[in-house]
UniProtKB/TrEMBL annotation, chain A:
Keywords: Lipoprotein, Signal. It holds the Pfam family MlaA. This is VacJ family lipoprotein. The keyword Signal applies. It comes from Thalassobacterium sedimentorum. Belongs to the MlaA family.
UniProtKB/TrEMBL annotation, chain B:
The keyword Membrane does not apply. InterPro entries: MlaC/ttg2D (IPR008869), Tgt2/MlaC_sf (IPR042245). Residues 1-22 form the signal peptide. Gene3D superfamilies: Tgt2/MlaC. This is ABC transporter substrate-binding protein.
């Protein structure tokens, strides 16, 4: 029997295409073979398992936080936004974001993201000088220094393969988990304005409280706005927040 | 023999080409739906409309192009079977109203967002993902639309905003609800959410 050999490049290309397209068609057939009903019942891959052994206590803390946000913080935020012109609000927010540069830098370095560390450093230098202590953000318009997603130590721990641990709701601070709580302590350690490694000597507690309080209020309008939107359409706000936080953090670590 | 073989390959290439044009058609359809929904809120003629009228206009636009039942059914998952037929119908309707209310309220007082659709990725022959960026009040958000070819055509089955899947989020809430609650209680909760004028009323857990 004579076996015909395929020597023509066109023949080889055609054969390769046939195999590739056949594989794709098989994959497609598998996907489309699923009925609409089965599709509705299909497991949703993301965030299907969140370890929440302290649910009872977490729900109680969530309810406490909600009360504080809506009854205590919201009136303060309303007052702050009413008396503060928008450009001042934006400037204050930029100022505090700029101060957190060391946290973002360490977050990038611990994950080996040299490009991110470079962008964050460039933005800090430009915004701290030309942008008057970070009140303005002239770096936004410089090629290669556009804002990037912030990295923190919790993300670095996640990228090293450290598990989330149990889901936690922290008083006032909101959703977290054991790994991110550790990351938050690390973030605080590299923040030059926070104890225990503050660069400012003779740090009186009144000054410390004033700065922390101002930072909290400045960040609050944006956070409260998002919180209310999240909560407003939630059937179970606790469950929604737990799932949303976990998906967000898992996505940030995977990026 | 080889002649037929080449014809077969050309046919396969044509099929692959039609898949690319299907992606482009879905991208254009999504873009025009988003633009029309935003027009319903931001056009000069809409400025005098009440929130409910705006919700109604947005609903008309969306339902003319997509079946909202798909994304809601996907969020409900197996919990669907735990409700009676009447409850199923009512839940579908109430969730639609809630989603539209959140959409219109969420944009209230904000300047018109700029939505740009990006790359379309086929995840299988019956599923695709369309990336988008939304610039709203100077902030950029990344949103992914997931579509599947259903019997009723290509439908949106999930929206992933900043890594948070809407379907996964509601599936978790509903799974938690049905562990100890019923369809009737879900309907009561949805009605309660809809009755609130503001979306920041006290939380009941």
């Amino acid at each position: 029997m004579k076996i015909r050999k395929f020597k023509s490049p066109l023949t080889w290309t055609a054969l390769f295409s046939l195999v590739t397209v056949s594989a794709f068609a098989a994959q497609g057939a598998q996907g489309s073979a699923m009925s609409d009903e089965d599709f509705y019942n299909e497991e949703v891959v993301s965030a299907t398992s969140i370890y929440d052994p302290f649910e009872g206590m977490n729900r109680y803390t969530f309810e406490f936080n909600d009360y504080v946000y809506m009854k205590v913080l919201q009136p303060i935020v309303d007052g702050y936004t009413a008396i503060t012109p928008d450009p001042v609000e934006t400037g204050a927010s930029n100022f505090f974001r700029n101060l957190k540069y060391p946290v973002r830098l360490v977050g990038n370095l611990l994950q080996g993201r040299m490009q991110g560390a470079w962008v964050e450093t460039g933005r800090f230098v430009v915004n701290s000088t030309v942008g008057v202590a970070g009140i303005m953000t002239p770096a936004d318009s410089i090629n290669g220094l556009a804002p990037i997603k912030p990295e923190d130590i919790g993300q670095a721990l996640g990228s090293w393969g450290i598990g989330e641990g149990p889901y936690l709701v922290l008083p006032l601070l909101g959703p977290s988990n054991l790994r991110d709580l550790g990351g938050m302590i690390g973030d605080r350690a590299v923040n030059p304005l926070k104890e225990p490694f503050s660069l400012i000597d003779d740090w009186r507690w009144e000054s410390h409280l004033a700065l922390s309080g101002t930072e909290f209020i400045v960040k609050s309008p944006d956070i409260l706005e998002r919180y209310k939107q999240f909560k407003g359409s939630a059937i179970d706000p606790y469950s929604s927040m737990k799932n949303g936080f976990t998906q967000y953090r898992r996505g940030a670590i995977a990026e | 023999m080889l002649h037929y073989f080449y014809r077969f390959i050309i046919l396969l290439c044509l099929i692959a080409g039609s898949s690319v044009s299907a992606q482009e058609a879905q991208r254009e359809k999504l873009q025009s739906t988003i633009d029309a929904a935003l027009d319903a809120i931001y056009s000069s003629g809409s400025s005098s409309l009440s929130d409910q009228e705006k919700q109604s206009k947005v609903r008309q636009v969306v339902e003319a192009n997509y079946d909202l039942d798909v994304i809601i059914r996907r969020a409900i998952g197996r919990n669907w079977r735990l409700m009676s037929e009447a409850e199923q119908e009512e839940v579908l309707e109430l969730v639609k109203q809630l989603v539209l209310k959140a959409y219109v309220k969420g944009l209230d007082g904000k300047s018109r967002p700029k939505v740009s659709l990006g790359e379309v990725t086929s995840t299988s022959s019956s599923r695709m993902e369309i990336q988008s960026t939304i610039v709203l009040d100077g902030q950029t958000y990344y949103v992914l639309y997931r579509l599947r070819e259903m019997h009723s055509g290509w439908q949106i089955y999930d929206i992933v905003a900043e890594n948070v899947s809407v379907v996964s989020n509601y599936r978790e809430q509903l799974d938690d609800h049905f562990r100890k609650g019923s369809g009737a209680e879900l309907i009561a909760r949805l009605k309660e959410l809809l009755q609130h004028e503001e979306i920041n009323e006290d939380t009941k857990i």
